[in-house]
Amino acid sequence: MSPVDGRAAVEAVFREEQGRLLASLVRRFGDLDLAEEVTADAIETALVRWPVDGIPPKPGAWLLTTARRKAVDRLRRDKAHAARLALLQVEVDRAAPAPAAEPGADLPDERLLLFFTCAHPALPSEDRIALTLRCLAGLSTPEVARALLVSTETMAKRIVRAKHKIRTARIPFRVPTPGELPGRLPGVLQVIYSIFTEGYAASSGPDLQRLDVAEEALRLARVLHRLLPAEREVAGLLALMLLVHARREARTGPDGDPVLLADQDRSRWDRTMIEEGRALVKPALTGGAPGRYAVQAAIAALHDEAADLTTTDWPQIVALYDVLLAIVPSPVVALNRAAAIAMRDGPRAGLALLDELAGEPRLRDYHPYHAARADLLARLGRRAEAATAYRRALELAGTEPERRHLRRELGSMEG
Asked: Domain DUF6596 spans what residues (predicted)?
């Protein structure tokens, strides 16, 4: 295997295993910084060994074993951790016997367990989400910043602050009790949805979608729904993700460039996934005031039920966005609502709402805002203004397929 192939193989395994690897190490050693450091050391070792020895039959297990050994070595060298190492009684070459059952120990995935742990109420909400996305969901700091609509510098500070708080406050990495789970659930749901969003619309790179990331988020949502079947917002989140992911095959053309909703071949939508999602929408909306994910799932269901863009129930979608905006007064929700109003009442009405959002700091560097505004200006025949908006969207777009699409739209305005 060449060094280039070896590096690609390590990176592919790391993308798949990183979350599980960190979660397992944090649970065993109770130290997030240590877990990150030995994970990086294990990856460096793999980059040296695998091109020579070949990829091991179980690469994830190889990385975990290597990282555990490196963690033990570090702890042994640090006399301050000697007593702690004795208590841990880490077995490097084989997993330790399963501990006695404890509250929440039936969580079937260690990453979900760590998601709940990082949702500790002692951490500010934005720090909890940032830390979990960065360290346990495997997103880069710029990807987390994009998901939460803040600058990369601000996000880096949040992550450092959260780690410092965990150390100084001695927040334990432990299984939350059943009574703690509901209070931490909203943060866990937001993390899973943010992972899915990065998979559905990648923040950077050569591809529009990262299907492996989206499908991993779906898997975690299914696990959570099996764990908490009576939680309506868990059902709502799973429904939303299913109804959106069902369109994955039609969202890109043969060249990988985006295909807008109006132009998608709806026969390529995954009808089995749509029906599964629709079946979850009703229980998510029943039994009290709906949550944010249930309302978004209802909007997605209306899109998936329509034969085409013109027969979509835009009045009902606008009404649902009104409900969603009351639940989540977010500029992104307001942007989507403006786009729906443009479909219901015409581009002039939608553009007026977008112009009202022009001063919103979180939309200033959000390329979908500028692309949406450019589209409405183009539909109104205001080509020069549309070209200016397309140029701004092009400056901000993170993936090459998005940039190619925007360059074509800009060219049509300039031509």
From this structure: 184-284
